[in-house]
Input
Amino acid sequence: MEWLLYLVALLFSLLGAGCLVLVVLGLPGTWILLGLATAIELTDGYWLSDAAPTTFGWWLLGACAVVALVGEGLEALTGAAGTKLGGGTRRGMFGAIAGGLLGALVLTPLIPIPVVGTLVGALIGTFVGALLAERSHKPEQRGEKVLSDDLKAATGATVGRLLGTLAKTAIAVTIWIALSVAAFWP
Output
């Protein structure tokens, strides 16, 4: 039955690599990866021998969940911080989030490079969404803001989104490596 252990580990690692692609696309790939690992851990008793009672261990899964939460926080904070550092408003932050999602959906088919097309679409959408949201203020609410101020806020939102995506992807890769190694050496 040792072959079954390695087959499950191999399948988990391959599916986990697919989950990393989801993270880059802005989808919850890290959480799907952790869900898959939890499902394997819950079914260990049915297919593992007494010599190796668990695949991952609950401590590792818990630690990975905490690290994944840190990744989510980093992604959210970098996007908001980028907008704020660029001089943007709360409206600009929401515009950046909505634009990023819309850009990823609409522009992915127009940029037919897997993963890269979606990331570029999300970044373009973030920029446009933040810019439009900042420009949508009524003149009396805008104060002294001019187009260059709004461009600066949109650029900040875009850089923040990129840094957040990179940080979250690096964290997801770390989790995937830790779980894949644990799967092969229970």
In short: The CA atoms of residues 127 and 157 lie 7 Å apart. The chain has one domain: 2-184.
